[in-house]
Write a structure and sequence with these properties.
heterodimer, A: alpha/beta, FAD/NAD(P)-binding domain, 5-stranded parallel β-sheet, globular, B: alpha+beta, Translation Initiation Factor IF3, 2 helices, binds flavin-adenine dinucleotide
């Protein structure tokens, strides 16, 4: 059997290595247009930031190692230009000599990945304008940053790649601005979490401009970028990073009759087969099934590329292993905070037709008395009818990867709020609280599902509604430190005696630090006949906006 | 000039800031209060509180998860 794999980063090399093991007699060949194979694309921002000192640290294996240790024939700088499915042939051009050659295959795996989407604006071909996809891109940026001549960088696009680049460029001493055309950064996260991430980045000196579109990159006489014009302002920029999304790199596949969807991703079945015989697709060029919606989605992640690259090999001769699909689990670190998500976001859950309940619950990441504990905020998204947890997002300075991974496991297995509340999770003070952060969140969720508690999201709170009173039940010194504009401060112990200061006919939103005191106050107000009482989800801890 | 020490380790908000608030009320101008806290949120809180109450934050250090602040009254 002759197996040809197009693309040799994550998915392609995983497939090649396993094919070598499973089919010792097969001829395995990787064709890639890239200068490098088997590099850790996810590490590129940290290489620019200097945390990874040399590019070679990101290279898992060189073409020579593949050849000599695995007997895999790797051709770099060799670009596939056409596939002929009936003849079972791939045409490819040597990028150095320009010579085209034809390679016959028995099985073909497409692992051609993705390409950055380039905004259609003037100036993107200037020097010092870069995309971040491959190691070659990152090396170019690193050389520019190492020159020490750059002062200002503008990152176009506030997805996780853009934000990781922003952090790393800031570490290198650049003044960084991020321009995002949507209303929020971090696509895939709900607005509460995205707003907290924005605040954290701004506190670290990164300018975040949402709801603005980049219109032009400005250049000097030597053809180098000097600035960026947005719909709202002009920003200085000696370096412009274009990270405005990616698209599947599937033009040659589509031209050969491989079925793709409107955005260009190759549609594959659960065995990762395309519509054409003996042609498979894995990694960032292919669709995956979403476990919560059963829809084919584009979820271009390194985790998925490695899994699908490995799995497809089992199915080359006959269909044997199925890919379970994705939950959309992702995680990103930004300076001293991290954000992680899994399952459906609130918006996705609503779009999928669920009647949704959510909670936003701040807790410490381990015992609150154990030195080093740090705050995290857990958002849960659940179905009101079935109580099933549909999605989760965890944000904060504390540990977020553990809760998101346990939540992802539970969500994949159909866990309800009741089941999460009863989960037997590891506890000792250096690692967790006796009531684990996810369990506390489940308990708040159960209170909401039972109707004991109603909440309002910080993103939905109206600050100038004359029929609403915002009651802050924290102590005076806490209120003095930071409070939401137009809030009334009545510390919880004084609430009963000072009740006349409030109007029971108005709708009341109660706020405290995390929600516990607000819950107590809300129960009291309801007993005292207040008409409409809600608490501010997440309290002051999750409040991402201005305070006084 | 008196010096006071508060061990507010293990207390969650509003514990630490309330203890400091109470101690500062009874202290004389120029007195020094040192407080130890394990609630990380305290770092931002103490800076804002001192600014707004016109007390002086003499030092703020974090070591092995314990935050130590020294505040001079006035
Ligand atoms: C900066 C950055 C940070 C990231 N961080 C994370 C992270 O933290 N977590 C995570 O899960 N994922 C992350 N990712 C995503 C992850 O890197 C990708 O999902 C993964 O690289 C996909 O692997 P792939 O093999 O499918 O495709 P790619 O990595 O895109 O590789 C495809 C290869 O195919 C080659 N090729 C394309 N067309 C042809 C052709 N016609 N002929 C020959 N060769 C061709 C390309 O040149 C390329 O070398 C990150 C990506 C980037 C860029």
């Amino acid at each position: 059997m002759r197996l040809i794999i197009l693309g040799g980063v994550a998915a392609g090399t995983k497939a090649a290595a396993r094919a070598r093991r499973e089919y010792p007699d097969a001829e395995v060949m990787i064709l890639t247009q890239d200068d490098y194979v088997a590099y850790a694309g996810c590490g590129l921002p940290y290489y620019v930031g200097g945390i990874i000192s040399e590019a070679q640290e990101l290279i898992v294996r060189t073409p020579d190692e593949f050849k000599h240790e695995n007997g895999i024939d790797v051709r770099t700088r060799c670009q596939a230009t056409a596939i002929d499915p009936s003849a079972r042939e791939v045409r490819a051009r040597d990028l150095d000599t320009g010579i085209e050659q034809t390679y016959g295959y028995d099985k073909l795996i497409l692992a051609t990945g993705a390409l950055p989407v380039l905004p259609a604006i003037d100036g993107i071909h200037l020097k010092r304008v870069a995309t971040v996809r491959g190691l070659t891109d990152a090396k170019k940026i690193r050389v520019l940053v190492d020159s020490g001549k750059l002062r200002h960088a503008v990152v176009v696009g506030g997805g996780f790649i853009g934000l990781e680049m922003a952090e790393n460029l800031a570490h290198r001493g650049l003044q960084v601005s991020v321009v995002e055309m949507r209303d929020a950064i971090l696509p895939g996260f709900d607005p509460e979490i995205a707003a907290l991430a924005k605040k954290a980045l701004e506190e670290h000196g990164v300018g975040i401009y949402t709801g603005e579109t980049v219109q032009r990159v400005l250049g000097n006489a030597s053809g180098e970028a000097t600035g960026v014009v947005t719909t709202e302002r002009t920003l200085d920029a000696d370096l412009v990073i274009l990270s405005a999304g990616i698209k599947p790199n599937t033009a040659i596949a589509a031209a050969a009759g491989v079925e793709t969807d409107a955005r260009g991703m190759i549609l594959v079945d659960e065995y990762l087969r395309t519509n054409l015989p003996d042609i498979f697709a894995v990694g960032d060029c292919a669709s995956v099934r979403h476990q919560m919606t059963d829809l084919d989605v584009y979820s271009p992640m390194g985790s998925t590329a490695n899994k699908t690259g490995r799995l497809v090999v089992a199915n080359l001769i006959e269909p044997r292993e199925t890919f379970a699909g994705v939950l959309g689990t992702t995680i990103v670190r930004l300076f001293d905070v991290s954000a992680a998500r899994t399952g459906l976001s609130e918006e996705e859950a609503r779009a999928a037709g669920h009647d949704v309940e959510t909670v936003l619950v701040p807790t410490p990441d381990r015992a609150h008395y154990y030195p080093g504990n740090k705050p995290i905020i857990t958002k849960l998204i659940a179905d009101r009818a079935t109580h099933r947890i549909l999605g989760a997002q965890v944000f904060g300075e504390g540990v977020v990867d553990k809760p998101i991974d346990t939540l992802a496991m539970g969500i994949a297995l159909g866990m309800t709020a009741e089941q999460l509340s009863g989960m037997d999770l590891a506890y000792t003070p250096p690692f967790a609280s006796a009531l684990n952060s996810s369990i506390v969140a489940a308990n708040v969720l159960l209170n909401k599902l039972d109707g004991k508690l109603r909440g309002v999201s910080p993103c939905a709170l109206e600050l100038d509604n004359p029929n609403q009173q915002l009651l802050d039940v924290r102590t005076e010194p806490e209120y003095l430190i930071a409070a939401i504009p137009n809030s009334i401060n009545i510390p919880l112990p004084e609430l009963r005696e000072r009740i006349d200061e409030l109007d029971p006919e108005k709708s009341t939103v109660v706020v405290c630090k995390v929600g516990r005191r607000a819950y107590g106050a809300a129960l009291l107000l309801r007993r005292l006949g207040f008409r409409d009482v809600k608490i501010l989800d997440g309290g002051m801890t999750a409040w991402p906006y201005e305070t006084v | 000039m008196a010096e006071y020490r508060i061990n507010a380790r293990g207390l969650q908000c509003p514990g630490p800031i309330m203890q400091l608030f109470t101690q500062m009320k009874s202290a004389e101008p120029g007195d020094l209060v040192m407080i130890e806290v394990t609630d990380v949120g305290f770092k931002k809180d103490i800076e804002a509180w001192c600014r707004k109450t016109k007390n002086t934050l003499v030092s703020l250090i974090e070591n092995d998860g314990v935050i130590t602040a020294q505040v001079r009254k006035g």
